[in-house]
Amino acid sequence: MARLLRAATWGLFPWRGYCSQKAKGELCRDFVEALKAVVGGSHVSTATVVREQHGRDESVHRCEPPDAVVWPQNVEQVSRLAALCYRQGVPIIPFGTGTGLEGGVCAVQGGVCINLTHMDRILELNLEDFSVVVEPGVTRKALNLHLRDSGLWFPVDPGADASLCGMAATGASGTNGPSTAPSRDNVLNLEVVLPDQAAATGGLGFWKSAAGYNLTGLFVGSEGTLGLITATTLRLHPVPEAIVAATCAFPSVQAAVDSTVHILQAAVPVARIEFLDEVMMDACNRYSKLNCSVAPTLFLEFHGSQQALEEQLQRTEEIVQQNGASDFSWAKAAEERSQLWTARHNAWYAALAMRPGCKGYSTDVCVPISRLPEILVQTKEDLNASGLTGSIVGHVGDGNFHCILLVNPDDAEELGRVKAFAEQLGRRALALHGTCTGEHGIGLGKRQLLREEVGAVGVETMRQLKAVLDPQGLMNPGKVL
Amino acid sequence: MARLLRAATWGLFPWRGYCSQKAKGELCRDFVEALKAVVGGSHVSTATVVREQHGRDESVHRCEPPDAVVWPQNVEQVSRLAALCYRQGVPIIPFGTGTGLEGGVCAVQGGVCINLTHMDRILELNLEDFSVVVEPGVTRKALNLHLRDSGLWFPVDPGADASLCGMAATGASGTNGPSTAPSRDNVLNLEVVLPDQAAATGGLGFWKSAAGYNLTGLFVGSEGTLGLITATTLRLHPVPEAIVAATCAFPSVQAAVDSTVHILQAAVPVARIEFLDEVMMDACNRYSKLNCSVAPTLFLEFHGSQQALEEQLQRTEEIVQQNGASDFSWAKAAEERSQLWTARHNAWYAALAMRPGCKGYSTDVCVPISRLPEILVQTKEDLNASGLTGSIVGHVGDGNFHCILLVNPDDAEELGRVKAFAEQLGRRALALHGTCTGEHGIGLGKRQLLREEVGAVGVETMRQLKAVLDPQGLMNPGKVL
């Protein structure tokens, strides 16, 4: 059960309403002073360079700087900041590592960016309970570093060293295979500051609950539009005794996807299973100094005991060979493995390197795995037709893939073609009972697709639910809805 | 993304408002005729015996019969029934198999019980996608029978042969171990009829989505208080190549729980791990003709390849023996296994048999596993102090256990002691950062504990969310909130 905290009803402002402004613009000095009074002068900035750093993520969405950036040190300050902004009608944009891909941090209506990275304590580690409670500044890598030698780890891995609360806020998942659930299933609990809501306190830390409505689930993936996540309880997993990675090249996309389905049907507990098309494989070869064959390829990883792994490897090898795999190679040594997955994580940069000076936009559709081959083949045809440069990586185990499109952000015409391509791909996914976003979220760019996916009234229902928690609509406005 | 359907705005009633009644009482003939006009005369009953069959579940909560029972044959009829009731202010109580344990089907304000068991089609089976779409009348066993020889199954097993949509509605889980997630994580999608809401349609069937707020998650565990679930898409799992079960007796509760933690920490993918205290073990020996030692006991089950199982068994045996287990025995043959789990599933009846003529009430607290020994020991002391007859079974892998209390329903004083004991146990769980219900839900009896667990304003937030979907408060009134 999520723990909801009231935004502190904090002393009256002599200038109540005076500073109130929904439109983008400068904040009056009094308001900035009030922010400083909450977090201390050194933790507030209105400098252009700082605001611009906080107005963009890693996507092509144009930078929309907030009017001010504040760094709260604790949940009580977050609560007071939220109350202050809410009372004055100032938009609130939560900010973590800024590694999002859908413009989720763009301050489209200006307002105050609340950078939560100074709250970076690991509040509670319960090894026996396989759980940890972390503040929003704690990143995935920082947590796993802290867990080193504990025998447990947090395996969800979106590539970027994102903050764990940010991953919860976007429902991120990544290269973890179907055997490792995405963030959604590993977020046991949340602490959330609601801007205009009294407090509901709940325990943090148990695995399973059927007590009332699943508020935690409502906040996971809400992209900062419902409240500020100030702590999360995560489920930890035992570190596998042994890990082996593998790559294999296939004659076709179909063969790669068929292998995936057969591996899952054989109940081989594959930990990661990633698809790279030949364009992406070529880019990774160049960027990360690999020499895999330039073909549709699977990167796989297996976790388990030495003995269990031997069996998994053998079964997988049989399956992929039945599907015509070639250049099959295992990476058993840690450094080989890490080279492989570093290459996979750098796929984004490898893609960007294909056209220096360009920015990237990543699509994020997800379809039932049985529909993957047709949509992948169709997507590659659309790519050729569009004249765009694009490469494909996919979390093929769950039907989710990304087409990374390269674009010159100063070329409006090309940007237009990229957006048109992405929308067309989203619609293809919807037609196949898929979704326009498997893990990146809706953010700024997919609001029309969300409407098509859940229907106008589905969006209206979401609006009404948001209105319960954020009646003034000041939490990360312009996103999702 | 849940698919939300409008309750049909169905022809005007000449007697609009005439039949309107929020208090419990007889429905006017016109209204009953209108129900018959929707589903056909043979699918509506106002007979006392039928209404009483639908006014109770398997709990001690007293029978509260609805005013009428209807059996819709399809979602369009459900939608028209909901619209009809809503228009007339008549409470709506969804009914599946009636195997709930918290009085969730009691018609505390009268109204119409919508029995969904005639909608029992398997709408779509996608083996390659590991998913199936079922109507609300399909039960767990019926689905697995249908899946026989498909290589896939639905492993979530609460014991009773509950309907799958009912399991979604209560967030049921059961004896599936931590390696198999509860209903919550296996419900990929829902189709829901909202009584007073226009439609949001979404695709049914993909695994993963980050598109907008998680409406599916909001309905899972909502206990029929938000809408009528008319279909669910479930994630299927490969049938294991081999299954082995085991029992072992321990010198203490602590030793049994320690073994569980060590097994999980060793990443042994245990499929089921159930705790029975010596009282329950004794009852099961008598009722199910087992001859296990009368001691704190674990029932375990392992799934995997023959080779993987050998290793799992060996590791587990080492761990439990380090924790002082005795009478360790494997059940590799199917019939031995099924005898064991039949006994576990019959634990409820075994407990009832300890005091013929009594009814049972099952508590359902869940705590972080590290706190299990202290709460189990304390609970047994409280049992002795209370003079009540009670036995304990637990899904020890996730900190959830049930104390099955026997009570003579005609003995108000004893009933009072049972309720007091259950409340005290719930509060102990909350004090240990646990929850008052791991899988049975809030229903009628735990509303006060829910208030204590999530706080008065948490409940208020839930109320406001409910008001968005059920503004008249006619969906299963008096439950959860």
Automatic annotation (TrEMBL), chains A, B:
Coiled-coil zones: none
GO cellular component: mitochondrion
InterPro entries per UniProt: FAD-bd_oxidored_4_C, FAD-bd_PCMH, FAD-bd_PCMH-like_sf, FAD-bd_PCMH_sub1, FAD-bd_PCMH_sub2, FAD-linked_Oxase-like_C, Oxid_FAD_bind_N, Vanillyl_alc_oxidase_C-sub2
Keywords carried by this UniProt record: Acetylation, FAD, Flavoprotein, Mitochondrion, Oxidoreductase, Transit peptide
Catalysed transformations (reactions): (R)-lactate + 2 Fe(III)-[cytochrome c] = 2 Fe(II)-[cytochrome c] + pyruvate + 2 H(+)
Domain FAD-binding PCMH-type: 62-239
Family annotation (Gene3D superfamilies): 3.30.465.10, 3.30.70.2190, 3.30.70.2740, Uridine Diphospho-n-acetylenolpyruvylglucosamine Reductase, domain 2 (3.30.43.10), Vanillyl-alcohol Oxidase, Chain A, domain 4 (1.10.45.10)
Described function: Involved in D-lactate, but not L-lactate catabolic process.
Family according to the record: Belongs to the FAD-binding oxidoreductase/transferase type 4 family.
The name this protein goes by in its record: Probable D-lactate dehydrogenase, mitochondrial
Gene that this polypeptide is encoded by: LDHD
